[in-house]
Fold each of these.
Amino acid sequence: MTVITRFAPSPTGSLHIGGARTAIFNWLFARHNKGKFLLRIEDTDQARSTDESLDEILRSMEWLGLNFDDIPIRQSERLEIYREYANKLLDSGKAYRCYVSPEELEQKRKEAQQNGEFFQYKRQWASESAGQDEPFAIRLSTPDHGDIQVHDLLRGIINFDAKEIDDFVILKMDGFPTYNFAVVIDDSLMEITHILRGDDHLINTPKQILIYEAMGFKVPMFAHVSMILGSDKTKLSKRHGATSIEAYRDFGYLPEAMINYLARLGWSYGDEEIFSKEGLIEKFSLENLGKSAAVFNPEKLTWLNTHYLKEKPGKEIAELIIPLMKDKGYNAELDDKLLMIIEQLRDRSKTIIDFVDQSHYFYTDHIEYEKKARDKFLKEDNIPVFKSLIKQLTMLESFDQDSIHKTFEDIMKKTGLKLGKIAQPTRVALTGGTVSPGIFEVMEILGKEKVIDRLNKALSAIGGN
RNA sequence: GGCCCCAUCGUCUAGUCGGCCUAGGACGUAGCCCUCUCAAGGCUGAAACACGGGUUCGAAUCCCGUUGGGGCUGCCA
């Protein structure tokens, strides 16, 4: 049997952390089993679905590298199909027309609630059929008693009492299918074998099983994965901060870090933490999925990001940061200078953005001294140091780390100063601040001309010439 | 309220059918080392089986209950 899974987002917003993870699980399960991973757009809510959301979801999927097989299916283009199947149910007596207006129902529901009663629609108003011209919804006729069993691959058998399930609507008055109905029709027609979805859908499953049975369709396998929560352990939402995949991309996170982190949230493989995409495909299995909800932890994501940043080829990092640097007005291009900068900034960057932020003094000649740095390191007693540095560096023929290092040692010997006493003022002179890669590396990358120039500027800032 | 799910360090988790667990790893955190700053790296530490009953020679692991958390309760998906 070929495994066929699907991801079925509704284009009513961004692809967020939770949705991305169920997509990842479905994708991994399909790829692991050499099956198919399909995409279906659930856009039956005309009011809330937008093309912008759809575009963003597709963009995020591509960014994550979650490739799907076949062209995506759009539910809004399949209205006829749902109507046809709903009519079949009508004809066979497994569904019936309901003429009660939503407003009226809402009223009844409210009244029941106020009286502390349990509200349920079980055909009691079915006879209130108005004339044939009146608009109607179609409801499924559900059993009054008995158990409905959900066989969940993760949680075993879960029993639902048929009494709890009312005659829910399958086709709305506007002719659109409801979520539960469209899902079942499509999952059947698409021949989905395994449905991996969020825990929050568990309650929908008995309803969907009822539809499968009424239609005479084969019931697929289900696995309800637990949800991702915010730090306060409630359902992850906007108030927890950034939740969309695109936001993390813009923060400078790598897709490989995102995939690794999300896959590891609710799934594990012994003590292993680092998984490449290939590793995940090879190792993923339903048995290792956890049952309890997981809290989203941005710090661990960041740690993974630094890990992947360390091993990403310099050229690839360059491709990612060059556009961002250009936005800042830096004259950056893929050359040895940029590659050297990347190597120096690798261990010092948590995100792609960090590379850009930390490289400013390599791409601008206007160095602004941080106040604290200037007060502490650009002082009169440094004048002799700067002077001898300028003098000796100027004489250097080859401006590489070794030669620079030797020059520093020479000055240390002559003055009796420790390296720190020379390096820090120099750092401030060259970068404007007290934090940077190793001073020799910085100097080599900047080149002789700029180094001497900046040292001179620092000297005059102190009043040394 | 009703129904359903869940319960190991702050967080993600290991713990496969009860003994090897004085509970392991990772993130974060504390200290130390390295060191021209900042990182990175190395070492060390603090930190958890929700509670109460069973079953058993023996339970984090099985059963029941309590508590806690989450989800659902729409002609939203």
Amino acid sequence: MNSRSGAPARRGRPRSPERRRAILAAAAELALDGSALPTVDAIAGRAGVSRTTIYKWWPSPAAVLLEGLLDRFHASIEFDDDLPVRTALTAQVDALVGLLRDTPAGALLRRLMAASLADAATATALLDQWLEPRRHAAIRHLERGIATGAVRPGTDPALVVDLLFAPAYHRLVWGHAPLDDDLAEQVCALVWPAITT
Amino acid sequence: MNSRSGAPARRGRPRSPERRRAILAAAAELALDGSALPTVDAIAGRAGVSRTTIYKWWPSPAAVLLEGLLDRFHASIEFDDDLPVRTALTAQVDALVGLLRDTPAGALLRRLMAASLADAATATALLDQWLEPRRHAAIRHLERGIATGAVRPGTDPALVVDLLFAPAYHRLVWGHAPLDDDLAEQVCALVWPAITT
Amino acid sequence: MNSRSGAPARRGRPRSPERRRAILAAAAELALDGSALPTVDAIAGRAGVSRTTIYKWWPSPAAVLLEGLLDRFHASIEFDDDLPVRTALTAQVDALVGLLRDTPAGALLRRLMAASLADAATATALLDQWLEPRRHAAIRHLERGIATGAVRPGTDPALVVDLLFAPAYHRLVWGHAPLDDDLAEQVCALVWPAITT
Amino acid sequence: MNSRSGAPARRGRPRSPERRRAILAAAAELALDGSALPTVDAIAGRAGVSRTTIYKWWPSPAAVLLEGLLDRFHASIEFDDDLPVRTALTAQVDALVGLLRDTPAGALLRRLMAASLADAATATALLDQWLEPRRHAAIRHLERGIATGAVRPGTDPALVVDLLFAPAYHRLVWGHAPLDDDLAEQVCALVWPAITT
DNA sequence: GTCTAAACGAGACGGTACGTCGTGTCTTCGG
DNA sequence: CCGAAGACACGACGTACCGTCTCGTTTAGAC
């Protein structure tokens, strides 16, 4: 009656933000000490919340985990358009490598990728909300490079971006080699000769 | 007088090879029309075999799937040492791309990678029996190139190999771009300038 | 305003009494046409209930059966203290014989005794909830008889009660002789001379 | 052609009596430390014999146990016909009480009665080979008593025998009271007045 | 001395039931 | 309307025995 805003006049008890945060935190903690996805039961128990509440707001533990991941690591995408293209791209790859190696994001992504490979909905969400924003930011840098002449015309930006980022994800997934400190720099060095004149 | 061979004088009823094959086939079929790993129950039902028989020989559906994968696609690794290094590597990458795109191996690997990300034993098996043989075959080619002078000294073969193969796996996993026909050729073209003088 | 009773303010969905009854009935029916204890699977199937529901409320099929038995045959214990001791005891034994011969209680008890002989928990439950109440009711009658002089002092009530009831159970278990109509009367007639003056 | 005995000219390897004994012993031992019937697997393992051998000669663990029981306790039935009837019967009941209380026979019988209550074949075997011989020996004593006038005419021997033996089995099965040393004597004392003039 | 049929050992196999865990839904009450 | 508590159906788990089977090996007696 009195809600003057454009919001659709919410009635009844409002959703508790504390519980939301508790659930996201609990899910992340459980995911980190257990190689599989946490169960809804476990998250509810750890967060001190009932199972029903989780089911009401998220379709699966993977969705909870993804929301938590994006909440904590939404940054690490945007970079200054004034930087030289190679510097900007190296910095992006390096930021990713650091994130995967030094923060919980790496482990969380592993769990989420596992869920993605078995569930289409999670796959779509993860692709749209995690990979694509980063891919397109990088592609935009390359297109800028082509426009300014710093990158050779005819270069396929999408392919180059895959070449730059894939090794980091590859090592995260397979674990056959470490995510070295200078991985970003070395990968860029291997690709650059081919895309500059 | 009897069993003269080196075989350790098998006692008891011998294992049925028909059933083994039926199980491998059933697992692969089920994996291909369902995005998640098949259950032991389902495999047993489809293969016309009892659950216990499966548990006796494999620790998990993932292990069944892996054995089936290796059985069917054990080739695709070895290449002629007389070929030029670039030709040989391009052929390897191309064989992988073709395998992932045109055969069930792609879908099977997706399921197995999902299992790997959640289960350490599967991860080890998959790494040791799938990725490492292919990685090392490629690394050997590069080392040959370094030895013959075709590849610049100081090149890190392991890193280069990751650069060559990672894009294919990356696209298989994320599905954000297709496994193009000329992917192998283009990837090699992007890396080659940096490792030749 | 609401729940004024001493009940501890029950929360959550209340237990379904229909299902409880369906389970008890299904277990009894299955026990009666099969010489062994029914399996949890079978009870669940017959009752149209899930296995987990049964496991939640009972530790074993024997416990289900016992609860059903007590539900249906809780009576048959109490008798009028004003009756002469011999009349009262004969009536008790006769009620037992009739129960074992003419109602499902006989068959159910056979199954439960089988379970008792193999499982201590069932044995305790069956002893406490079936035999002991009946034994002590009979013992009380005999003690009354001793007090009033109708039964000879020095008589061991526990032993006499065993003598009175054991033949019925003996024939139920071994099946070597029928539970005759006049078994109770004849047994009492055989014991009475020894405990009266 | 020359086998002169009635035996049907046995050919091939004869059955091993050592193994038979080892199986009987193993079954008895396992039955005594475990409240349920031993499994065929367990017996085979303990006896150092293959499962197949057991299945070849016995239909079930209960049959093994019964054969072992009869082997060890075949005596305890026959008594001197010259003894007074009451003395002879008291001795029989006392022998049973002692057997059930002081030897493994008690525990073995408990297991076998459990099996009997669930399996008709076992029930028949146990009744025919254990209970009936003992019952009839006792009945014969009573009939002798009736013939000689020591027992009152019109007495039902079968019922009296049940009265005498049932309490011992009753206490073995239910465990609600101990198998006292003087149980036999007291039971006979309670029955005797009614069957003598 | 062979020959041979049965006993025996080893182990694969199809079943059935077990008891547990996690899922997702539903029901009831309280804030 | 949010949330807690908990009942419930369902499906898969991995294990334990069951009883049957198919091999190969052993062995006492018949020839």
